[in-house]
Every structure is written in C-alpha cells, then in structure tokens.
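An example makes the point: we print one protein in full, the chain in one-letter code, the fold tokenised, without further comment:
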Amino acid sequence: MNAPEFSSESSQEPALSTVVIPLLKGVIYQENDSILWSCLVALDAKVRDYVHVLDLELVLDEAEGYAFLRSREMDETESGKPTPSTPRLFPRRQLSFPVSLLLALLRKKLAEFDASGGEARLVLSLDEITEMVRVFLPANSNEARLTDQIETHLNKVAELGFIRKLKAESSASQPSSYEIRRILKAFVDAQWLADFDARLDAYRHHLENPGEENSDD
C-alpha cells in the first residue's frame, strides 16, 4: 500500500479520503491493512460526521478489527414527523432461505466458539457445515447433491463477506475449509440470537412448506 496522503490542515493527520473511499468500497479489516486501519481509528469522529451527510453510519469494532458503512435508519425526525424518503446508497439484499439458514447456524456456532474460549479464528470444514445443516433436511437427502448445494450457498455467503474460503494446505481432494469472519456478529446480533430457537422452528416450518416467501437481511 502507498503511504497515506495527508491533509493541508495537519502534517500528521491523514486525509479523510484515505479511509472514506475504501469504506465506500467495502469492509476494512485490521488484519488486511494495519496502516489503513490506524488511519481510520485516528479519524473515527470525522469519518462519522462526513458519512452522516450521506445518510450513512460507521460501524467500527476495534476489538474484532473490522469497520464498514451502513445506511442509517431514519423513521422520524426529532419533531416526531416521518422523514422524507431518501435513496439508499447501500440497498437491502434479499436472501434466499438456505443462505439465511446458513447465516443463522454460523452465527450460533460463532457464539458457542467464543463462549468456549477457543482460538481467535473459527474455521469449519465443508463436512462440519454440512452436518450443521443436515438436521433440517429430510433423512433421505442425496449426499452428493446436498454437498454441492451447500457449497453453492457458502459461495454466496462468502460474496457477502461473512466467511472466507481457505486454500487447501495439502491434497486437492481435502475438503474445503472456511473461516467464519467475525463481522457476522454485527449483522446477526445478540438479541437475534436470543430468539434463535424460535427462528429455527420457523426454518423447520419453511422446510415443510418450501413454497413460502424468502427472508430479508
């Protein structure tokens, strides 16, 4: 990475564009770029003020080492009147049921992993993830087809930035492994997990009634 540019106001403070532009492109991870991360932490308040004008808010978790922008929820003004509708810079994505189920199960697994005091990174194999999903599927599901379907859904989850597929260290026949990225905690929060059992009941109902509508993120 090139050296960060500096503003005319200070010879020691990086320019806002140094961090705002990468944020508009996607998630910033401390582990990926420590220099950019340091700039972002130093400009935290200024970045929040700047993106506020765009109806965005900064989510920055120094403990977990990630930051991203999301649209602000503005239902009412301070006077209690509804705000005029404004275009969303980051539109909501509609998620298929299998992707929603995977996100729920991975978030639950991450919570259990944290509670056990394990390593900093949660890595699961394709086989382990398949076993997590299997309990929600008919007992006579075709094994090869199930694995292919789960891999397809995992690719979508990876596109959303919640997991990262790891390169096989040895044989190409070795099952794929995935790192569960901790940013998932920001999208599936503790309150959501508190209702997890009820949501799983809804998922089981959906599996028995596959023609129902998909869920939103």
